[in-house]
Structures are given as structure tokens and as C-alpha cells.
Amino acid sequence: MTNWRDYEAGLRRRGSLTLWVTPEALAGWRAPRRKTRGGQAQYSDLAIETALTLGCVFAMRLRQTEGLLHSLLDLMGLKVPVPDHTTLSRRAQKWEPSARRNPPLPDGPLHVLVDSTGLKVYGAGQWLEQKHGARSRRTWRKLHLAVDAKSGAIIAHGLTDQKTDDPSQVAPLLDQIDGEIDQFTADGAYDGKPTYRSILQHSATANIVIPPRSTAVESGDTGPPGQRDKHIAAIASDGRLKWQAAAGYGKRALIETAIGRYKGLIGLRLRARSFPAQQTEVAIGCIVLNRMLACGRPESIRRQVTQA
């Protein structure tokens, strides 16, 4: 590791409890008055986001989040109202992240890594189902992530039910990315023509690195072979391991690291009950992770070992 001192300081900053409320934030704490018919919102999206972010960072339920924010504002001597837990629950179902919350993309084309993982939601557990024959309501949500290989930041995300297949979420993830893609890397679950089609529609010159299935065969289309056919031919000629080394497939480990970071810091399960609120919870979790990553990230190089 070449930046151990800076990385160590960044890890300490991640645990620093500092709440800084700017005059602009105080001015925008209350929602602007509506000029149309309907109920008048008391709190702005900024106030709701602030409360939900604190709850995400400290893994608190909405009532405890309300109490934490109330005590922090009291200690700071700020006389602003605090959203109650009922308001947070209701507004979380309609909150949408603004463009300013997206991490800045690095200069030049991107190397995008994509993968998905499962998150638990509430319901009866397996023990209750086996012991008492109760019908389990436990389900899963699938969290789909797109990560920039250079910075490690989450640049796109999505949440679906457990039955949604991974290839169908490639286009929605790419729609959230404004930059040009130089390379797209994913595991074999994304193999197939629809995935290649979605990527090339976004970036016509993108290099796609997806391992074909063991039963994959070349398409047999007339004309020059496509990228997928070239992968199949290379694996048949040199073997899968040599193809992975030549194609740079090892970079995919970085998306596994990002998923492990999400589950380790944000959690293995979703706290919200409704699906729109769960989408908000995931969006804020990704924002929190990117802010933590901005505090410090290890920079390492492979050590060269020479034999005498």
C-alpha cells in the first residue's frame, strides 16, 4: 500500500461525528409553499434526506432517528423542527435522489463493473416455518450495482424483487451513467445477446468482458465475429484461465468488494417495509458509501519479488 498514512487518517474520519448545518441548509429546511391545491408539506427533501441519512449511518429505526436528530439540533442550539417518524416513513416512499448526489465521474472513458446481490426483508423466518408450519413471508430484494473500477464509487444502482433476472437491469443501470464506457465487466449471469445489445447501444466502442457459459456456441452469423464469438473462440483455444488473464476479468473482484462494503457498513437486510421506501433506503445507503469512500481509499501495487 502506497498511501497508508492518508488511508489511516481517512478511516478515522469515517468515525468522526461532525454535523455541520450551513445557513443555506437552514434556509431550505422547510418546504417551499405550494401554489396549488393539496396539503402543504412542512419539511423539504433536504430535511428528510438528512434524517434518513443519520438513520442509515447509525442503523437506527425511524423513532430513534427522530430522537437523535432532535438531540443533535438541541446541542447546536438550532430552533428548527424535526420530522417525526410518521412523516419520515411517508416521505421516504416519495423521496428521489437529486443529480447533485451522484459521484463525479473521472475524466475519460469508464471501466464499469456490474453485479447484484440479495438483501433480506422482514417476515417469518425459516425456523418458524419448519417448526410450526407457518407460511414464511420472508422474501428477498435484489440490489443491482454498477461501480467505477478506477474510483470504486457506486455510479448506478437499482432495487428489484428476487425474481428479476440480472440481464434485464443492464439498460436501467446504464441509463444512470452519463460518461462513455471503455470496458464493461460482469460475471457469466449477464451472458447473452440482450446484454451486449444494451451495452453497445450506450457505447458503440465498449469492450465487453463477460465469460460465456460452458455450453455457449458461436452465433454463426455472417460477417466479422462479434465480441462474444471471439470470447468463445479464445476460451476454446487457450482455456478459460488464460482468457480471464488476457481480458482483464480479474478486475471484477472490485465489484465484489463494493458489495461486501455495502453489507458490512449498511447492513444485510432492509429496514423499510414498502418497496418505494426500500428503494430510498438503498439510494441513501449508496450515497453514504460514496461519502465514506471519499474520506480515504487504499492505493496498492503488486510487490515484485525477485529471487536470488
From TrEMBL:
User: Which InterPro entries does this one have?
Assistant: Tn903_transposase, Tnp_DDE_dom, Transposase_Tn903
Q: Where is the signal peptide?
A: none
Segment Disordered: which positions?
A: 89-108
Which residue numbers delimit the Transposase DDE domain?
A: 13-123
Which PANTHER family does the UniProt entry name for this protein?
Answer: ISSOD12 TRANSPOSASE TNPA_ISSOD12, PTHR34631
Q: What is this protein called?
A: Transposase DDE domain-containing protein
Which source organism does the UniProt entry give? Rhizobium esperanzae
